[in-house]
Structures are given as C-alpha cells and as structure tokens.
Amino acid sequence: MSVAGGVSKAVDRAVVHGCEALQIFTKNANQWQGKPLDRAEIELFRQRIEQTRITPVVSHASYLINLATTFPVLREQSIAAFIDELDRADALGLLGVVIHPGTCTAGPDNEALRLIADAIRMAFKARPRGGAMVLLEHTAGQGRTLGHRFEHLAAVIKHLRGSRRVGVCLDTCHLVAAGYDITTEAGYRDTFEQFDRLVGLERLKVFHGNDSKRPCGSRVDRHEHIGAGCIGLQPFRRLLTDPRFAELAMVIETEKTHGIEKRGAIAADPLDVKNLDTLRRLRNGKGGVRN
C-alpha cells in the first residue's frame, strides 16, 4: 500500500481493503536517500497497526540497492541505503525488509553471493541490536540477477552461518519465471521439496502473490492479475490451502488503478479489491473470480 500522506495512511488503505497483512516502501524506491520518518507518524503507524492487528507488516527495499556489486562507490551507497532500510523498519516495528539479493556486475556467481552475504553481515554488525529481519526475495532471473535459484539463497544463508535474522520471501511470478513449475501438482510438490531441502521451510516468512504474464522458465519478471496469467487459479488455491503455509502472509504486487484517490481521501482500488477477493475465495474453498 502507498504511504502517500504519511506512513500511517498505508494502514488506513489496508483497512479499507480488508487486508490482514501489509507491505510498504518506507521511502521512495527509486531514490538513494529518503526523507526522515516523522516521529509523530511513526507513533501513529505503530498505534494503528496495534489497533487493527494487521500482521505481519514488511517493507520492500529500494530497487537501487545492489549488494552484489563489485563497484566500490555503488557498493558503499548500497550498504548505507540498506542499513537505512533496516533502521526504518525497526523504527516502525516491522517484521523485516524484503530485498532483491543483487545483480552480479563482475566475476562468477559464487563470488557475488559472498559479496551479498558480506554486505548483510556488515549491516548486522552496524546494527547488532536490530530486530527487523532481512527477507531475501527469490527473483525471476533476468540478466545476471541472483537469487533465482534456491541454491543462491542457501549459499547466502550459509555464508552468514545460518543467522536467524535472515528469512526468505517467495514470489509466485518469480518462481514460475525462474523455471519452478508450480502450475502442476507434481511441479508444486517438487518445488517445495527442493526449497525445504536446500533452504528450509522455516526460513519462509512471506509470499508475494502475483500471476505471471510470461510462461514458466521465461526469466522475465512481469506481474499479472490473479488468475489472468500463465499461473492461473489452481496453484494459488494449492498455496492458500496448504497447511504448511496457513500462518504465512501473501502480499499482492499487481497493477493498481490510477487516480482513484481525490483530495487525499482514502478509497478502495477496484483492481486490488478484485485480486484480494479472488484470493480470499480460493482460500475459503470457493471458485476464485467472482462473476
């Protein structure tokens, strides 16, 4: 949900949509530095979260951050921005920060994975008492982006000696794009068997629920509305009724309707309403899309 007007407004928007969990950006996702969070807004945000019992709440890190880069200036900027993301998450009392592991800029993948782990270690050292988790997001695998194989996530966690401050966010669109075919029953079963063996289901803290515009193995990250893409409804039904994931949140990152809020008034987004309603119906054993 948007934080336009203050971070507490994201909670108001979540309430209007009947959300049970929430993801926000705590600053502009396409800028290195963000405006400091207002103390009054921090308090109001935390109060509203406690009142509404929306949980978990996570933030998504800036898209500019690249913890795998070998370029010194970019690496320094990325680590500083990453620490700031963790600080903001701690101030707001969030479960954690969802972050794309990084893009390899030179050398082999295994060296880039070590660079990612080293950057996270530096952040933990800088904030030893921090409570916000680092939630590594599994990626679609475009270009030389890392994190599209479960082995990548496992390697970073191993380099960090299994730190409990590190979790994982799985995106349904990214899974399919990366070649994990959750669209079939056998593929779904195999995908999570692999994840459990390599990473561990206990590391999984949140799902991003997005359909995919592109087919399995495309390695192209293009989100689609639930049930309208190459994934379809049945895989979401499997996820939402899988007892292993009953307590995990699913956050949608699908296209929104533009210009629905006038003069600062909070309004429900018809596209969000439709996607959330579809997921709730699937979770409750119903058909999915309402006619």
Characterization of the model:
The protein has 291 residues and is of the alpha/beta class. The chain has one domain (7-283): TIM Barrel. It contains nine helices and eleven strands. It has helices spanning 7-16, 39-52, 72-92, 109-126, 150-159, 172-177, 185-198, 233-241, 270-283; strands at 22-24, 57-60, 96-99, 102-103, 133-137, 145-146, 166-171, 204-208, 211-212, 223-224, 249-251. The strands form three sheets. It has a seven-stranded parallel sheet. Strand 1, helix 2 and strand 2 (57-60) form a beta-alpha-beta unit. Helix 1 (7-16) runs parallel beside helix 2 (39-52) and helix 4 (109-126) packs across helix 5 (150-159). The radius of gyration is 18 Å and the shape is globular. It starts with 6 loop residues before the first helix and ends in an 8-residue tail after the last helix.
Q: What are the segments in which pLDDT stays under 50 over at least 5 consecutive residues?
A: none
Radius of gyration using CA atoms only: 18 Å
User: Quick one: biggest sheet?
Assistant: 7 strands, parallel
What would you call the structural class?
A: alpha/beta
Overall, the morphology is globular
Strand line-up across the major sheet: 1-2-3-5-7-8-11
Quantity of strands, as a count: 11
Please state the second-level CATH architecture: Alpha-Beta Barrel
Spatial separation of the terminal alpha carbons? 26 Å
Portion of residues in beta strands equals 5-15%
CATH class: Alpha Beta
- Average pLDDT, rounded to a whole number, is 97
Helix content: 25-40%
Brief overview:
The chain has 291 residues and is α/β, with parallel strands linked by helices.
